[in-house]
């Protein structure tokens, strides 16, 4: 049994199974941990609309709950409604720079998340973008650069979406150049994500831990993908899912079951609840 106060849990490939559902075993064990006073925090690349229904399913009932969204770009408090506590955003010049890189790559789209809005810098919404927006329970809106320039809401993060082979070529060509200006991660074969420089899930987790006066050694993190690496390294105790990438498994303290075998429930029950 490990002594922790906060459990940070990734969603896709971790909390959610392959059908994008939360296994009942995960819900039951998470609720049990919450009853014992452990703070449960979803730490995900998803935007707010893609988290709300799942958070409701978890049934967490503390007076104040928290969620780290958009790969650490936004920290939200949840107390009946959702409120933005702190955030890091991309400015217009940054978005314009990212968009200009697409010259010669018409099959790749640049999408942006802004609060509850899923935006794509294009004349129309492609099938791939529409699909990705559906995964976070919203519809993508096609916008132009001028719409972004005069937007009232902050742009949290950007995502390049495209078929994996073309995105491979794009990433290989520009990743080094982007690294000097932004934080980047290839979270899925069809998604190459861009955040403000220095911002990852780990920075969001550190901000929340500081607010709650929780030490790094009192944090357990569970994840599966490359955008979880920094979060796992920032936690005192890290767990990789059985379906995690080799890099994630190598970085974690321990490996649990897969997301289709309720690996989150297994990890919390064994290492936190001592069951």
Outline of the structure:
Pfam families: Hydrolase_3. This protein has 275 residues and is an alpha/beta fold.
Keyword list:
six-stranded mixed sheet; Rossmann fold; Hypothetical Protein, Haloacid Dehalogenase-like Hydrolase, Chain: A, domain 2; 14 strands; 275 residues; globular; eight-stranded mixed sheet; single chain; 2 domains; 11 helices; alpha/beta
Fourth-tier CATH superfamily name of the largest domain? HAD superfamily/HAD-like
Portion of residues within helices: 25-40%
In terms of structural class, how would the helical and strand content be classed?
alpha/beta
- In whole angstroms, the N-to-C terminal distance is 9 Å
**Total of DSSP H or I helical runs spanning 4+ residues:** 11
Total count of domains: 2
């Amino acid at each position: 049994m490990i002594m922790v106060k906060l459990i940070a849990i990734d969603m896709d490939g971790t909390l959610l199974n392959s059908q994008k559902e939360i296994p009942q075993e995960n819900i039951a064990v998470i609720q049990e941990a919450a009853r014992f006073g452990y703070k449960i925090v979803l730490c995900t690349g998803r935007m707010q609309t893609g988290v709300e229904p799942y958070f409701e399913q978890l049934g967490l009932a503390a007076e104040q709950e928290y969620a780290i969204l958009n790969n650490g770009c936004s920290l939200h408090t949840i107390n009946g409604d959702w409120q933005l506590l702190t955030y890091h955003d991309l400015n217009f010049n940054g978005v314009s720079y990212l968009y200009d890189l697409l010259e010669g790559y018409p099959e790749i789209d640049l999408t942006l998340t802004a609060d509850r809005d899923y935006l794509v810098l294009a004349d129309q919404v492609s099938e791939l973008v529409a699909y990705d927006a559906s995964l976070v329970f919203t519809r993508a809106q096609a916008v132009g650069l001028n719409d972004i320039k005069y937007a009232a809401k902050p742009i949290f993060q950007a995502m390049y979406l495209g078929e994996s082979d073309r995105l491979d070529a794009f990433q290989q060509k520009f990743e080094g150049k982007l690294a000097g200006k932004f934080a980047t991660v290839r979270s899925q074969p069809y998604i190459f994500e861009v955040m403000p420089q220095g911002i990852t899930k780990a920075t969001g987790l550190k901000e929340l831990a500081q607010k709650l006066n929780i030490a790094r050694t009192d944090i357990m993190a569970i994840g599966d993908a490359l955008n979880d690496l920094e979060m796992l390294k920032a936690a005192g105790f890290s767990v990789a899912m059985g379906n995690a990438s080799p890099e994630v498994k190598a970085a974690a303290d321990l490996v649990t079951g897969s997301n289709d075998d309720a690996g989150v429930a297994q990890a919390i029950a064994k290492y936190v609840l001592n069951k």
